[in-house]
Every structure is written in C-alpha cells, then in structure tokens.
User: Fold this.
Amino acid sequence: MSEPTIYDVAREAGFSIKTVSRVLNGEDGVRPETVARVRAAIDHLDYHPNPAARRLGGGKLPTIGLVVDSLNDPFFGEVIAVVERRAVEMGMDVLVASTGMDAARNQSQIERLVRRGVAGLIVAPFGEGQAARAVLPDKIPVVVIDRQCGILDKDVVRVTDHEGAHEAVCHLIAHGHRRIAFLGETAEFSTVRDRLAGYSDALLDAGLEVDGQLIETTCWDADAAYPLALAMLAPADAPTAVFASTPLVGLGVLRALKRLDRQDVALVVFGDFPLAELMTPPTTVVDQQPTALAEAAFDHLARRLEDPVAAVVETVLPTRLVQRGSGELPPRGPR
Amino acid sequence: MSEPTIYDVAREAGFSIKTVSRVLNGEDGVRPETVARVRAAIDHLDYHPNPAARRLGGGKLPTIGLVVDSLNDPFFGEVIAVVERRAVEMGMDVLVASTGMDAARNQSQIERLVRRGVAGLIVAPFGEGQAARAVLPDKIPVVVIDRQCGILDKDVVRVTDHEGAHEAVCHLIAHGHRRIAFLGETAEFSTVRDRLAGYSDALLDAGLEVDGQLIETTCWDADAAYPLALAMLAPADAPTAVFASTPLVGLGVLRALKRLDRQDVALVVFGDFPLAELMTPPTTVVDQQPTALAEAAFDHLARRLEDPVAAVVETVLPTRLVQRGSGELPPRGPR
DNA sequence: CTGAAAGCGCTTACAG
DNA sequence: CTGAAAGCGCTTACAG
Assistant:
C-alpha cells in the first residue's frame, strides 16, 4: 500500500536499519554477503529512500540546483537539458532557478536552493569578484559556468572568450575588413570584457586602429541592440563587418540588417543559435558548444560530490569558428 | 549560527510550536493578536520552515514538478520560464523533468517527482487515453498542458489546434493555393491529429480534395522532416504551399527550401519560433502563445493547491495567425 | 483558542 | 562487522 521504509528492508534482510543505511550510503565495513542480502531486499521491495527523511537526518537531498540568467535562452536551454539528463542518470533531480540578471534575485535564489538542501549547485554567476563570490555557499559543492567573475576558489568551466573573439575578428580581417564594429552587452560582464579584449587585440595584431566609435557595449538585450545596431550600420561610412558578442546582440544586428535590407555586411556572432544556418546569408558563429560545457560542469560537480576537498580546477574549453557565409563576405565597396 | 527552527519562533513569540505551525499553514482559529506576535517573531528571526521536516511530518514540499518532452525547446523553454517565475513568487520552487518522448521515461520521471513529494505537477502528457492517464498521480493536483491525450479527469490547458490549423489552411486557400501539403510528426499525438483534421476540413470546406500524397505524418523531428520535405517539394508538380504542424517540422521544411533555393513556396508553421521574422521571406505562423498557456496552467495549479476538489476544467486558448510574409505568397506558376 | 505528545524515516554518534 | 538510541523539525490526532 504505502511506500516501503528502511524498517521494511531491515526486516526483510534480517539486519538492523543501521546496516541498511550503511549499504544505502555505500559505507564500507559491511560484509559482502550482508550487502548482497540487503540489496536483494531493496530490489524485492522496490525500496526508495525517503529524501525528506534523509535530509532531516543530516544528509543532503539527491538534488542539483541550477542557477542561470534565464530559462528560456537557447544556450542555457542546452545546459538545462544536459544537466537534467546526467542528474537523472545518477538518480538525482534538478531544481532550476533564474536570476533575470538581477543581483538581489540571484542571491535570494541561491539562498533558497541551499535552504532546500540541494547536494550541489551549478551556477552562472552574477556580479564581480567579491560580490559574485560572496553569494556562493561553502558547505556544498559549487561549479561555476560560463564566466569566472573573478571567482578563484570554485571549480569553473568556461570557454576561451578572448581567443574565440580574437579568431573571429582575425577571420574578418583576413577577408579584407578594416572597419569592424563590436556590439556587446554591458562591460560589467567579464565574458564581454574578454571578448572585447580579443577583438581589440586582433585589430592591433593586424596593425589596425581600435576606433571607439565602432564599439558599443550597452546592448542589454536584443531590443536594446536593434536601435544601436541600426545607428551603427546606417551611415555611409558604416563598418563593413560586425562582431556581435552574444546571440542576443546578434539577433538585434540581424534585425537591423533586415530592416536596412542589407545582405552585404559581414557578421560573426559569438555563440551559435538555432536557425543561424537559415539566415541570408547563413550566419557565421563562434560556437561555445554549450553541451560540452554542461557535460564538463556536471563531471566536476559529480567529482566534488564524491570528494568535497578535491583541488579547485578551472576548465577552459575551446570555441569553434563555424563558417556559414556571413563571416566570409568581402567588404562592400563605397556606396 | 544555524538556521532558526519552529522552537525558536515559539519561544520568541511566547507560544507553543503548534500555534506557530497553525500560523505558518494559515489555519484559522488563531487570535489575530497571536498571529501578529508569531508573524513578528518569524520576521525578526528570519525564520524559514524546513521543507524536509514539513514533508516528513506529512505535508508536501513547496515544490512544483514540471514534466515536458524536452527542456531545450523554445516552446517548453517559455513554459519553464513562466512556471519558475510564478512558483518563486509564491515561495515555491520547480523540479524539471524531461521525457524525451519515451513512455517508460515519462512514467519513471513522474513517479520520481511524486516520490520526492512535490505539491503539484504540470505535465505535457504522453501516450493515449488510458495509458496517458494511468501514469498521472491522484494524490496531488495535476494540470495537463499542450495536449489532452484523452485525459478527462484532470485540468487541461491547451490551444485550439483544430481551429488554428483550419484558419491557417483557409488563409493559404484564400491566397490562391490549391495544392497544400501537410507535414507532421506521428499521428500518435492528439495535437497532430487535431491539426490534420483542421487542415482536411479547411480543404473540404473550400470544395477541395484531400490528397493523401500531400500528407506526411512521420516527421519525428527536424532531421526526419528535412528529407521528407525535400521529397515532397522537389517534383515539378510539387504543392505550392506547406502547412507544418510544429516548429520542428517547420525547421525541416525551411532547410529543404533553403537547399532547393526556393523562396516561392508558401509556408505556415503551427507554433512560433525565434527568428521566424528573419527568414526570407519571414515565416507566417500560428502562434500558440506559450506564455499565456503557461500562465493559465499555473493559475489552475494554484487554484487546485488551495482547493483540491475543485471541479475539473478544460481551458482551450485561442491561437493567433501571425502574418509575416511566407503565408501570403501567391502560388507560383508552373515551371 | 491553545498545547502536549507521538511519529514521519532517515542519519549521526556511540557501543560492543 | 553490526546494532540500539537519540534526534533532525515539522505535522497530525487528540485534549482541554
């Protein structure tokens, strides 16, 4: 009728509940024969430990908390999908929380998940250095994804922002472009700063000047990026190429290009997005490989769940330039 | 140091823990003055009830379970975002689970969430009639979204699949099309069957024949849809318009059109998708308004959380034809 | 209107 | 290698 408990398993196996608990938690110092008998009872009764009781007794929930900017975003959508699949494979589940890029909400969401008793956290952090670090708990494993935010004492999994941007801009330069715009969200984000640095370094490496007029770092989202992209691209002396530091900004640029009915402006977007291949021309991107990033993040969390004092590691995954057409356009002639 | 408990609140307020519990659960029969004193103590100590203890005592977790086909899907991404926002607003959190369109996994995911003790469930069901119904729990509120699957004793929130498809196909007919293809996933889905019926009825209403050659219902996903769409559109006597029953199928069609370098085939997709407006021509869609659907689903769940025996309701939200260009193309001439 | 008691199903700390 | 006891922080069922 009702769910079997640890007492039912103990009775069935002929041992005390403590021994069942030992088997459940993989503690050693139990005779193999005993382990087998307990396992058999567990299987026979289809017993599942009660997570609430386990939690109350002093353990953690078999649950991973995932904190991201936004839940309806293709990049984080991939991350959520991978984390959930991996979690379920090991019998855990996933509590999701979004920050909406708000510092206060970021903090309250993390506190809520910790209070719930999640066993570990995967977080796309928010803020800078001490502020970003301070809201992360120390009692449970935390893996930081996407951006480092100056956090040095947690595992971090991110991509080569500087190198990826550098490669993209070198690519545009190699195709003949000299006036290349940079459009990004606020430079509050370390990822945006890194990508901007990669952009600047690529220009300097090629002996080109970094023109502040061609740099826009207030494109909070696609709606904000659209008018800024329009303003950047409308003039007669507009740049011949654009580097968009995120898909959202890229979307704003694409809308502006559509509005201007221009298909001759070269474009590379940092971050792949669905339907990029269906744009006209198809959009060249720097692929962040969110699936690989999420897999790596989960690997690190699983490792730290087993060994909480493992050395802190920073994993920097390579990006991949995906040439689809828009990044290979030559500079247009003067109009 | 450690978190305050109900005993701390009781001591601070000068009442027993039972009275604190009453205030916490909004039970009536407590003097207003007492409520105020307890509330003040709660605020003063920044007390948060321990969910695990509450659960173990016999209550439910302050948690909503959300079960969908896939977590990285624009439609469900919107649903997840809305559900999480609403849940957090009422102090609850969200466990997500994906089924991958697999019946066994669907069942195990639901069982897992129920075992965890979620207070309620929002489910995009899977299967048909008795099979779909059987896996849903009866002890907690369940709201079914997107498709009914013959489930009659649970709240359902879905859209006008038949009418939306009917309107879309009438729209194509009004623009002069006579040979209109239907591309959909398996007819196992009631939504696909409803949309197919809407398609057929629109043709019949216009005195047109329903040609089985123009109906394809084995486009499981975008990769499967692509070759099927290619085969459908390549011949000289190909249909002049396509109705795609989901965004995934629409994506396959768009790829095929790109491959064939054709911009003269009319297209309406059931379900909006990001960047539809950036296609060439921009894609006309039947908008399912996932945000409104998710809001309605949450409203129903919240209602049923308060009143578990409320009458079962089926909510059918209207769709909205969004004309962007691809659905307004005239039939091309013979080649 | 308020409270004392028992119990939910585990875990930790201690014995043997 | 195994177990008896206490306790985690709530809730339900029962009193008064």
Observations:
- The radius of gyration of chain B is 25 Å.
